[in-house]
Amino acid sequence: MWKKIIEDFQKLHENEERIELQFELEEAQKAKEEVEKKFEEANKQTELETKRADAAEKQIQDMILRLSSTMDVETMATLLNMSVDEIKKYI
Question: I need a surface site. Which of 2, 17, 30, 45 has the fewest CB within 10 A?
Fold first, then answer.
């Protein structure tokens, strides 16, 4: 009889350990999902910022091309506070 009680107690203890491990696994999976969600949000934000930067770059290029029809590169560089080399990469 004592042997059966000890075996039952051991099984109960093993079940408790399994339940604890299952709980820890579930918590880890939730944390992983949260990290993945934040990663996706960061990627979306990066894409948005890249699009904004590309649009700004295009505006700069358009402005420099318009200015280049009326003034020389050195004057544009001074006016725009850019180097001559920076200006030339847009022309």
Answer: 2
